[in-house]
Please model this.
Amino acid sequence: MTEKSYLQKIEEHKGIILKVANLYADDLEDRKDLYQEIVLQSWSAYPRFEGNSKFSTWLYRISLNVSLTFLNKRKKATEIKKRTITDGYVDPPELSERADFLYRAIKQLAEIDRSIIMLHLDDFDTSEISEIIGISKGNTNVKLHRIKQQLITILNRK
Model:
């Protein structure tokens, strides 16, 4: 597990990181910060990657965990700021109008639900999603059904 093999795998799968960063960070600077944090944390964890799952599955898990931690830190920083005051990242390509519409709808979901639907849209099966998220396969199926219903409701409102 060399630096070269890690960098090659990150280059092959950087789309995963970009998607996650785009879903969990609203502005360009936050997306860049999140992208860098995911790359850093995955590099730190790479020596422990045993290959028991696909690299993409492992990278999704790292990316989602880092994103959720990142969001919590941002929320805390924003709360503190409100009290005191009353490059590896590539900007994602322009989305089609329909894709942008869907992204905006997905961003309205709870954080964990965003993760689940994103993995589903990237063709991960329920077993892989449950492994990445850390919930049972049955719970994943139920959540997916409910998320789809939520998205239908959100999309029909617009």
Summary: The domain at 1-93 is CATH 1.10.1740.10 (Rna Polymerase Sigma Factor; Chain: A). The mean pLDDT is 84.
